[in-house]
Design goal:
Blueprint lengths: L2 E4 L2 E4 L17 H7 L7 H17 L5 H7 L4 H7 L4 H8 L10
Antiparallel strand pairs: 1-2
Helix pairs in contact: 2-5
Length: about 100
Amino acid sequence: MPVRTYAGRAVEIDGEGYFTDPATWREEMIPEIARDEGLGELTSHHLQVVTFMRHEYEEHGGGPSVRMLAKTSGVGVKELYALFPKGPAKVAAKIAGIPKPRGCI
């Protein structure tokens, strides 16, 4: 397994860059992971989405789809794509340290 270092902590990732063990994720890793994903300075809406993704994973064992994310996170679909142009659910999940949501290509 590949290893990345975020916030001074080595973590295992899979071939697509998702954490293999979500328990190794820490909130202070967010800016570094986001930078690796090509995002600049994060806004409060970025953090709202990432926090929501993490919460959904912890509560339900998986991240929501983009459609569900738009309906339940408080951030609309157009803004989600503006915030995470490479794919809101995939990128937000990666930043939140959770597996890629089912249904994401």
